Amino acid sequence: MLVLGIDPGTATTGYGVVRSERGGLAKLVECGVVRTRARDPLPARLREIFEGVQELIARHRPDALAVESIFYAKNVRTTITLGHARGVILLAGELAGLTVHEFPPAEIKKAVVGTGAASKEQVQFMLTRLLRLKAVPSPSDAADGVAAALTYCMAPHLPAGDRAARLPVTHS
Prior knowledge:
The protein is an alpha/beta fold. The chain is built from 5 helices and 5 strands, in the order E-E-E-H-E-H-E-H-H-H. It has a 5-stranded mixed sheet. It is globular, with a radius of gyration of 15 Å.
């Protein structure tokens, strides 16, 4: 199974493509970011995010899309703007016919680290361990996209036929 994970943002949208293989292994295929220019109007930035996600879907042909769900920022305007970015990402997945699943940040942390209160550094450390990487995916937005994809791969909600394997989470 191939999963595209997305960490939404209007300035930087992180993504990670993870392949779940039989035997409980997962492999990072690609990660990176879609960047927009702060001086551009919001509609132009949303189009850039939408087209970037469409291009990733066309290039990798994932089986599923995992998106970090919205968190409530102190600034309501930030929360609403983030919601716009999430909307175009969800639309891209839906138009491509992908299974789309949203994960709250705490659920992603719990799946990858074992606790929903994990720090960003702990999540990044566990990504390197679980995916057998030499370095942390960078920038941090890309690592968050990888974590979302890995969470989907590890999710027990998937029917056995749709999941190559449930990855074990081990703690050192």
